[in-house]
Specification:
3 strands, elongated, three-stranded antiparallel sheet, about 200 residues, alpha+beta
């Protein structure tokens, strides 16, 4: 059945190419439409797309030689461990990388009891989850800035609301949170970090 996997007349090869396009379609939505829209990082676009292609093709080849699913997942985990060692990667970027790998593995597996509509639903669940989390983060994202503040009387816990109002008036930003780093009682100043919504 798999002897001529890369023979153009083989139905298995045609199925692989159809699923390859299917996989790229959903990867494009996840990587370009959601990840890039919210992060604006071009650095990982190349890596994410290449990982999507490689993991999908490796998964299809492993299916062709009938390697156990556990071994396939183990190999994918190994590729994940051998990730970008030369530079740090944020948890968010790592989560997207895991989502890219997950979608590729799901689309690469040839599961008889798992119809095409099931793949579509699983892909959509991952993509919609990423989009909803990004929207939640955007609504609740606060920028921070460190300032020297002179009205230290407002730093008392019972005057917290007045402090936020005063800082909002002073900075012209909607200050939502304050973190007091250091207070100098001699100079009557405090170094505080303000958090505000842009």
């Amino acid at each position: 059945m798999y002897e001529k996997m890369f023979d153009l007349s083989n139905p298995q090869f045609r199925d692989t190419m159809i699923m390859f396009v299917f996989n790229l379609f959903f990867q494009y939505i996840l990587i370009r439409t959601i990840y890039y829209r919210y992060s604006r990082k071009e650095t990982y676009l190349f890596a994410f797309f290449l990982i999507a292609v490689i993991v999908f093709l490796v998964g299809r080849v492993l299916n062709a030689v009938q390697i156990q699913t556990e071994l396939a997942v183990g190999l994918v985990a190994l590729f994940t461990i051998l990730r970008f060692r030369t530079r740090s990667i944020t948890m968010k970027d790592m989560s997207y990388m895991f989502a890219v790998i997950g979608i590729s593995v799901i689309n690469a597996l040839q599961l008889v009891a798992f119809p095409m509509i099931g793949r579509v639903i699983v892909n959509l669940i991952i993509i919609v989850s990423a989009w909803m989390l990004e929207e939640f983060i955007v609504r609740h994202r606060c920028k921070s800035h460190i300032i020297i503040y002179e009205n230290i009387d407002l730093l008392k816990p019972d005057r917290h609301k007045e402090l936020l109002d005063d800082l909002s008036l002073l900075t012209g930003k909607k200050v939502c949170r304050v973190n007091v780093s250091e207070v100098d009682y001699k100079k009557k100043t405090a170094e505080i970090e303000i958090f505000y919504r842009d």
